[in-house]
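Blinded run. Sample ID left blank on purpose so nobody reads anything into the name before looking at the predicted structure. Input follows.
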Amino acid sequence: MLKRNLTAYGFMCAALFCFAFFAWYPIVHQFLLSFQQTNFVTEAEWVGFDNFRTVFEDPAFGTAWLNTLAFTGLALLCGYVVPFVVAIVLNELRHCRAYLRFVVYLPVMLPPIVGVLLFRWFYDPGPGLFNQILDLFGIPGLAWLDSTSTALISLVIVSTWMNLGSATLIYLAALQNIPSDLYEAAELDGAGLFKRIRFVTIPQTRLILLLMLMLQIVATMQVFLEPFLLTGGGPENATVTVAYLMYQYAFVYGGNFGAGGALGMMLMFVLLAFAAVQLRLTREEKM
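Blinded prediction complete.
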């Protein structure tokens, strides 16, 4: 039996090694790092909970969490709902469906940095595309990234655009697995489009909706690239997120890797709590 499955065990061991080295080892190392003071040059010093105290006493700590939660909430309104609506529209179409799927998925094919820098030009207060469009309608231009009232929502728009395609295709695959008999029965009962969505589409895709909700929360609460490239956490810390604050601790504030690790552990435990809730809801749905 062992010889017959030796090849399979070999592939499994290689996968487990990669997973342990690139996933579990960094988690364990970060856990230890959160209780140490080190610059990765001299020997690490064990400082206990001092790093956590440093993080809690930082005035930017509360701001970073509030910004992260606000970004997550706005991203759920846009990046969670919009792809589902687009998938329903594509599923209802009878012509050009393949072409439109390609168009929707096209932003995902761009490297994330390219997509973010593209929007940096869109948001330019001078020759930027968005302000040029507003000017055509006689509307004054906006300081998209330089105003505390528009900076965060501007980042949400970028994130939604870059991730729209993958979420839409996942929803579309789930919609196409719904038996057509259910829609035919609903149409015979006189149900229109919105009633079909309410009583057929949403109940039949409830599990995938819960899964995508969890993935959306986990991804948006770790947002880093958009504030790093577009705003640098500004203006007035309006776009400082937890992940960006971790970066500042490690690479801006004199190499305080321990404080960055402590903040990372806090974020991990928050995400674990969300994951536990999602697993509970998924289990109840299956039952």
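Unblinding after everyone has recorded impressions. The mean pLDDT is 86.
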